[in-house]
Design a protein that fits this description.
This protein is mainly beta. It is built from 1 helix and 14 strands. The strands form 3 sheets. Strands 1, 2, 3, 7, 9, 10 and 11 form a 7-stranded antiparallel beta sheet that branches. Strands 5, 6, 12, 13 and 14 form a 5-stranded antiparallel beta sheet that branches. It has a two-stranded antiparallel sheet with strand order 4-8.
């Protein structure tokens, strides 16, 4: 699977659009679902300008609430591309900025470059330069 990410920042909301292309010769079924925070917690990686991975500030493990509703599987045919997104927010806490997604958050510095990468389905996205 081929992954390509970008970001859109509006006020304190950061949207992470993720384009997933099935570059195999078979249909691929998967679940792009972050209800428990596991997708963001396992997929999002941040790096500083020295190419060092930024350790998460907090990891949150959320127990699923059983509602009886089934999570719909996503399906991509060979060479098909799907558009997905993760929602994050910028929180100011005790004079520090946090980039927070459901499941994981990172300390970041205002007006300082950091890099974001997303891993999913055995694929690694482009390295995205971000400034908040």
């Amino acid at each position: 699977m081929k992954l390509n990410i970008s970001y859109h920042l509006e006020e304190n909301r950061l949207t992470l659009p993720i384009e997933i292309t099935n570059d195999t010769d078979k249909d691929q079924t998967f679940y792009f679902y972050n209800g428990t925070g596991a997708l963001a917690r396992n997929g999002i990686r941040l790096f500083n300008t020295r190419d060092e991975q930024i350790e998460p500030y907090e990891r949150t493990f959320i127990s699923p609430i059983y509602t009886g509703d089934k999570v719909r599987a996503d399906l991509l045919a060979p060479n098909e591309t799907g558009q997905f997104e993760l929602q994050g927010k910028i929180i100011e806490e005790d004079g520090e900025l946090l980039l927070s997604f459901k499941g994981i958050s990172f300390r970041i510095v205002r007006n300082e470059i950091f890099y974001l990468m997303f891993n999913f389905l055995g694929g690694t996205s482009n390295l995205l330069e971000v400034v908040v």
